[in-house]
C-alpha cells in the first residue's frame, strides 16, 4: 500500500501541467472531442510490442530477402575454423585483453605448454571468431536500408501537403490544441518501435566501434520522440524524423555495395550520403528545425519547462551530428587521398578491425617466411630469392 501511494504521488508530480504544457493550458484541453483525437501518453505502450513485431519481420526479411540478395551479389557465407578449447587462454581473452602483449604471450605459452607462435595464432583465431561475416553485415544493412527507404517515402507522402512543412509558423498555430492525424500516429509509432528494435538487437548485431554513440543516439531519439509526443510537439517531431531518415538510406546502400565488393559504387553512394548528411544535419537541422523549435515560440510563448527540455534534447542530437561528421570527414579523406572505401563511421568490423585482420595475416605470413629463410641460412639475402620461392 505504501509503495502504491508513493507511485501515485510520483505520477501526480511527474504529470504536472506546468512541466508539460504552456501556462494556462490544462490536460483537459487535450481531451478528445467532436471527433478530434489528441495524443495520449498511453499510446506509447504500443511501441514495445510493435518493436518485437519488427524484430520478427526483420528475421524473415534477412533470411528470405536479404540473404538471397547477398548471394546474388556474390557474398558467400563464411565458415570460420573453430579454435582449440583452452581454458587458460579463454579466461585471459575474456577477462584481460583480446590483444595480449609479447610478455603476456610468453607467460601464457609457459603456462599452457605451447609455443609463443601457437598462442599468437590462438588469439588471432579467437578474435576472428567474434568478427561478424560479410553476409551478416549485408543482411543488417539491407534491413536498415529497406526500413529507412519505406519510412522516407511514407514521410514524404504524409507531409507533402501539410502547411507547416512550407511555413514554420504553422508548426505552432493553435499549439498545443492540435489534433492528432492518423498518418502522424503511425509515422511516430513506427519510428519509435524501430529504434526500440535496434536497442533490443544490440546484443546480436555486428559490433560497432561507435557503439556507445549509437546507444546514446537511439535512447536520445526515443526520449525525444516520447517527450514530444506527450507534450504534443508532433508537427516539429515529424520534421525532425524526415530530416534524419533521408540521409541514412544512402549510407546503408553504400555499406551493402561495400560488402559486395562494388567499391566504385560504394564510393559514389558514400559521397551522395555525405552531401545529404551535411545539408540535412548541419544546415537544415540547426537552421530550420532548431530555429523553428527555439526561436519562433518566443514570439508568442513564455519559455516553459517542456520548451527548454525539448530544445536541450535537440542540441544533444546536434552534438551527435557533429561527432559523426568528424568520422565522415575522415572517411572522405581516405576515399579521396587513399582510395580506401571502408566506412569509419560504421561497424567495428568495417573500419580498423578489418585493417587489423589483414595486417595480422600479412605479419604472420612475413614472420613465417622469415623463419623459413633463417632456417635455410638465407638471412639478410632472402630478398634475392624470386617471389614465391621463400621457404622452398
From TrEMBL:
Membrane topology: Multi-pass membrane protein
Catalytic reactions of this protein: hexacosanoyl-CoA + sphinganine = N-hexacosanoylsphinganine + CoA + H(+); sphing-4-enine + octadecanoyl-CoA = N-octadecanoylsphing-4-enine + CoA + H(+); eicosanoyl-CoA + sphinganine = N-eicosanoylsphinganine + CoA + H(+); sphinganine + octadecanoyl-CoA = N-(octadecanoyl)-sphinganine + CoA + H(+)
Annotated protein name in UniProt: sphingosine N-acyltransferase
Pathway: Sphingolipid metabolism; Lipid metabolism; sphingolipid metabolism
GO biological process terms held by the UniProt record: ceramide biosynthetic process
Pfam families: Homeodomain, TRAM_LAG1_CLN8
EC number, UniProt record: 2.3.1.24
Source lineage: Eukaryota, Metazoa, Chordata, Craniata, Vertebrata
CDD domains, per database record: homeodomain
Domain Homeobox: start-end pairs: 89-133
A GO-annotated cellular component: endoplasmic reticulum membrane
Membrane-spanning intervals of the chain: 43-61, 141-160, 185-203, 269-298, 304-329
Coiled-coil residues: none
Chain segments carrying region Disordered: 344-392
GO molecular function, one term: DNA binding
Keyword line: DNA-binding, Endoplasmic reticulum, Homeobox, Lipid biosynthesis, Lipid metabolism, Membrane, Nucleus, Transferase, Transmembrane, Transmembrane helix
Subcellular location: Endoplasmic reticulum membrane; Nucleus
DNA-binding region: 91-134
Acidic residues compositional bias, start-end: 349-365
Classification via InterPro entries: HD, Homeodomain-like_sf, Lag1/Lac1-like, TLC-dom
TLC domain mapped to chain residues: 136-337
